[in-house]
Design brief:
about 210 residues, alpha/beta, Rossmann fold, 10 helices, about 10% strand, SGNH_hydro_sf, SGNH/GDSL hydrolase family protein
């Protein structure tokens, strides 16, 4: 499976694509991935830069994962939706499918998660795209767990545990595989806790 990731440091931090590849490999799914990332970039900036559109048009990708700048869907959901539509048109024209990487609220502004969830969820429904509900899973995990910390010290970016939890959600939502019991150790992490939480929460969300 070939996946193109378009986003910023919320995707590149802790090598999220590599974590997903490792989990998928443990379930017998081979993933090739490419990442187009720029610090703090919005989807509109990626559209204007052209590099992502060139990669999509070159073909060969099964799925293109879109990650918007972390607070833009809260501040300007209409702008996000417009960029999502433009990307989706290019992705469909290339014979691939669109997936939205629903991100999380900053640690000191948990009340903004609903706006993120609504923006990404609405785009996914409108465009018939896949939704990877990472932010929603983070929200439910944080409601019941103090440790491990999902946010990095800046209260915005993901700590390693946050990226690993995100990778488990990708495995479930994008690849329809259960992460529970995968023995790919990650130094310093209780991966079993995060795997189980991802599976339990995603199962709740699906019902």
């Amino acid at each position: 499976m070939r996946i193109l990731f378009v986003g910023n440091s919320f995707t590149s931090r802790n090598n999220l694509p590599g974590l997903i590849k490792g989990l998928a490999g443990a379930r017998g799914i081979e993933i090739e991935h490419k990442l187009i990332s720029a610090g703090g970039a919005s989807l509109r900036q990626h559209l204007n830069a052209g590099k992502a559109l060139d990669a999509i048009a070159s073909g060969g990708f099964d799925t293109v994962v879109l990650q918007e700048q972390s607070t833009l869907p809260i501040k300007s959901p209409a702008r996000f939706r417009e960029s999502a539509r433009d990307f989706d048109a290019a992705i469909r024209a290339a014979g691939a499918r669109t997936a939205f990487y629903l991100t999380w609220a900053r640690r000191n502004a948990p009340e903004t998660q609903q706006a993120l969830t609504d923006a990404y969820g609405g785009a996914a429904v409108e465009l018939g795209a896949s939704l990877i509900p990472v932010g929603t899973v983070w929200e439910r995990f944080l409601a019941t767990h103090d440790q491990p910390a999902l946010h990095d010290k800046d209260n915005s970016h993901p700590a390693l545990a946050g990226s690993y939890l995100a990778a488990c959600v990708f495995l479930i939502a994008l690849l329809q595989e259960d992460p529970v019991g995968i023995e790919v150790p990650v130094k310093g992490l209780d991966t079993a806790l995060l795997q189980q939480a991802a599976w339990d929460i995603c199962t709740e969300l699906a019902t």
